[in-house]
Amino acid sequence: MYGSTLALNPSPRRIAPYLWSVVITCVAALVRAGLGTFLGEHYPLGTFYAAVAIVGWFWGVSPAVLAAVLGYLVGDYFFLTPRALPFGTESNALEPAVYAAMCAAIIALVYRVQDRQRRLDQALNDHASTRRALVESDARFKRYLDALPDIAYTWKAEGSLEYVNPRWVDYMGAEAVSDEIVAANVPAEDLSELNERRSEALRRSEPLRAEFRLRDRHGRLRWFLTRCVPIRDSKGSITGWVGTSIDIDDERRAAEALELSERRYRSVSEAVDFGMWSADNAGRLTYVSARFLEFLGVTQEQAEAQFWSAIDAPPEEIQIAAGRWERCKSTGEPWEWEYSLRGKEGAMRRVLSRRAALRGSDGSVSSWAGFNLDVTERYAAAHARDQARQRLEEVTNAMSIGVAQCNRQMEYVWVNPAYTRLLGCSPEQVEQIQGRKVEDVLGRAAFKRLEPTFLRVLNGDSAEFEGQLESGVDPNRWLHARYTPIWNGDAAPIGWVAVIDDLTERRALEEQLRDTNRRKDAFLATLAHELRNPLAPIRYATQLLKPGTPAEMAADARRMIERQLEHMARLLDDLLDVSRITRGTLEIRRDTLDLRATLRHAVAAARPLAEAVEHDIRVELPNEPLPVSGDETRLIQVVGNIIDNAIKFTNPGGTIVVSAANDGAMVVASVRDTGRGISPEMLPNVFDMFVQGDPNSQAQSGLGIGLALAKQMIDLHGGRIEAHSDGPRRGSEFRVLLPRVAERPAMQDSLVDAAKVSVLGASNIRVLIVDDNVDAADSLALFLKIAGYQTRVAYDGRTAVEMAEILKPAVVLLDLGLPYLNGHEVARRIRTLPWGRTARLIALTGWGQEEDVRRSRPSGFDEHLTKPVDPEVLIEHIMLLTRDQAQTGN
Fold it and tell me: Rounded to whole angstroms, how far apart are CA atoms 515 and 279?
């Protein structure tokens, strides 16, 4: 029904040509009728040809055919002679044929003209569509350029400027770009090189790349990298140029020594590291830069499918990014993602991809454009920074010094485990402290004390604090804190870093060092005193040895000198023993001894001193042996030091008891006195170096090293020494405990007994004494001469060698520090002589360190003795070295 209605009611626009055909035919008939007086019977259908042509030209073939038919009918009826019905038998057949041919020709001509016009119109429409597409493409291309963060421009084929994006205006503040503006804002040397490279690029039709400085609207010069590439048509001809100018000032200044591994821009499509890409409004890729495709090793058709598979990231992360891209395609939101991309050869690059929607005039998304940035170096630097920070945290976490970081709000940002321990917390509570207020963690009192320091640091100054905070696990802990402000470019610090060191142990050590220093000063003063004391009686005694002094007084003077010399020698021996023990070079010559004999010798040596102050020394020893393994000389020295100490600190008329006994696996020797005793405060330190008795005691003497030396020697023997006292004025007891050993069938004779051996046949032995100290050499020569030896004296090394060649002595006593030739050189020369190979050389010197003893052996010395030497010990050594040349007896 609806369709038939349309058929019965055709569109007015479709009927109008036919109506015009009828009207114009009527007009033609009227015109012919009007021309009848002129034409007569001629050309009866002439005006209808014009009607057919007009209708055909304006309205087409069909209306023209209608006009031709109507024209013939009207003309045949009105103007043909005789008038009759069309195609009547009486009509002239030639006129209709001519009319039909003429109308057909006119209609054919009109058709050809209209067909050509139609094709021309179609061609013009196609050309207009192509031009619109070109304009749209150019607009989209310029939008791409406008979206770039850098200055982008295009040249015409000959190199003249065609377009520059808005970044130029943003940077320069000038709308136009001219040679004058460029010359005014680019330094001359940069402009010269830039023009040279531009001319070279145009001449060779090659891409342009140059770096230059450009002054911005504020007059500041910044470095730019410009890249410009030619645009070619399908035949390879250059149709234009396109390029970008990138601000590389920050990168150039920050890393001038580094060379960019890849240039960011080579063309507009390659304006960034991996180039530019575009997509249609549905997100389907329409263009991808050749460089990006080359990196992936795929074609543009494969790019979209291969892109996601080339990303090196967890699958769930890729899925989230892809889902976000799908959402952005539907909403038109910008899309950004940083990811690792694997190339065709396995190379990994870090890529920052950005995508932005290009919208039409109606606001809908017409296409997408974006670019890919290679941020591998930045990512590597950030990764290296994170690793460095991680290593720093590992180091600070391993430190014993507390480290903390706080912000301007006085909140903890980060602390290390050592800091938590200072607060009395476990290292696992680090995260509980972070974010809390400093006042809440330290306490109100400690915070108020430190608040001025915090405020000073927040004003930009470094500060320190040292003292007790009375907070944390130990309120008496002494802390030292250094506070350093943290800056991030703002006018004020964003916080501070605190480094806290616990000085409690160091201050205790410093106090101990000060105490030791006081003891050292007291020791040096005492040493000077103790060394001066014997010199006075020695000086007085030497006056008594002058001729004319009664023999009894001279003998007393000699004994006085011997006692004082023995005292001085003992002081020096103690000092040397302390040095040897400190350096670990004291030699213990072990042998199985009966401790009873050792104690008797020590008591015998101390008895004269005890009798001088009217002390009663008692010896209580068992009948059975007390076998120990040790050095008899050192053990006598230990017990002698203890007895001497008891004598000094016992008032005249006191009692000293020396006893010993077996106690299981140990042998215990005891020295007990009725002296002044030891205070409880002094008792723990009695064996320390330089510790002496009551400073107010009149009996104080010695260097304060005797008991310390005794303890160290007993330690070397594998034993121990103990001190006991019930307090001041209640006496004291020292006990020496040594490991007990198996008893030998016959105990060794002590060295003390050996000192009683005298030498027979000494007159057959020549002794050469060499010393630059004339008194020492002469007195020793006199002593040995009295003992029966033949003696000669030399006072320098050269004379000693000459006398030795003449005398051929059996024994040479050599000082080492001699004029002209030292003792080592004298010994070596004597050893080169035939008789010198059997001579006995004894180094008699004040140099007694272990190194001095070692040096004397290679020089040829048989013995090394340190001054002052006990005369009886010296005779014993000479006797032992020359026993094959003399006879000994009791």
Answer: 85
Buried b (16+ CB within 10 A) or exposed e, 776-791: ebeebbeebeebbbbb
Q: So what's the pLDDT on residue 83? A: 47
Instruction: Specify the DSSP class assigned to residue 521.
Output: H
SS3 state of residue 554: helix
Quote the CA–CA distance of 446 and 170 in Å, as a whole number: 55
Is the pTM of the predicted complex or chain greater than 0.70? no
Q: Give the SS3 label for residue 386.
A: helix
Token digits for 742?
A: 């198996």
Q: Could you give the CA distance from residue 160 to residue 108 in angstroms, rounded to a whole number?
A: 54
**Closest-CA residue to 428 (of 417, 438, 419):** 417
Contact between 826 and 817 under an 8 Å Cβ cutoff? The reply is no
Q: How far apart are CA 190 and CA 181, in angstroms?
A: 14
* Secondary structure (3-state) at 303: helix
627 and 593 in contact (C-beta within 8 Å)? Answer: yes
127-159 pLDDT per residue, tens: 777 777 777 777 777 777 777 778 888 888 888
What's residue 64's pLDDT?
A: 82
| Nearest CA among 192, 309, 849, 872 for reference residue 579 | 849
Rounded Cα distance between 317 and 320, Å, is 5
Q: Which residues contact 768 (CB under 8 A, 6 or more apart)?
A: 791, 792, 793, 794, 800, 803, 804, 807, 809, 811, 812, 813
Over the stretch 830-865, which tens digit does the pLDDT of each residue have?
999 989 888 999 998 877 777 888 888 898 999 998
Nearest to 405 by CA among 488, 491, 315, 303: 488
Quick one: pLDDT at residue 536? 53
Tokens of 687: 């064996």
Please name the helix (run of DSSP H) or strand (run of DSSP E) that holds residue 413, with its range, or none. strand 412-415
Tell me what pLDDT residue 550 has.
78
* Spatial separation of the C-alpha atoms in residues 585 and 828, rounded to whole Å: 27
pLDDT in tens, 400-455: 788 888 998 888 888 888 787 777 777 666 777 888 888 888 888 888 888 898 88
Element (H, E) at 541: helix 504-544
Q: What CA dihedral angle connects 839, 845, 851 and 856, to 10 degrees?
A: -10
Cα-Cα end-to-end distance for the chain: 169
- pLDDT at position 583: 61
pLDDT tier at 263, thresholds 50, 70, 90: very low
Q: Which two tokens stand for residue 576?
A: 């040397």
Token pair, residue 882, equals 């020359």
Angle (deg, nearest 10), helices 551-583 and 632-648: 110
Residues 6+ apart with CB under 8 A from 665: 739, 740
Is the bond leading into 17 cis (omega within 30 degrees of zero)? no
The pair of structure tokens assigned to 58 is 């304006």
Environment class of 314 (CB within 10 Å of its CB; exposed 0-12, middle 13-18, buried 19+) = exposed
How far is Cα 107 from Cα 739, in angstroms, rounded to an integer? 149
**How big is the chain, counted in residues?**
890
CB distance 859 to 824 below 8 Å: yes
Continuous H helices in 836-870: 850-859
Percentages of the chain per state (helix, strand, coil), in multiples of 5: 50, 20, 30
Q: What is the mean pLDDT of the chain?
A: 78
Whole-angstrom distance, CA of residue 339 vs CA of residue 337: 6
**Sequence-ordered list of residues with C-beta below 8 angstroms from that of 764, at least 6 positions apart, any chain:** 885, 886
Nearest Cα to 826, choosing from 849, 810, 838, 842?
842
Position 733 pLDDT exceeds 90: yes
The contacts of residue 629 (CB under 8 Å, 6+ apart) are: 590, 591, 592, 593, 717, 739, 741
**Nearest-angstrom CA–CA distance, 693 and 420:** 46
Band of the pLDDT at 39, cuts 50, 70, 90? confident
* Over residues 329-338, mean pLDDT: 80
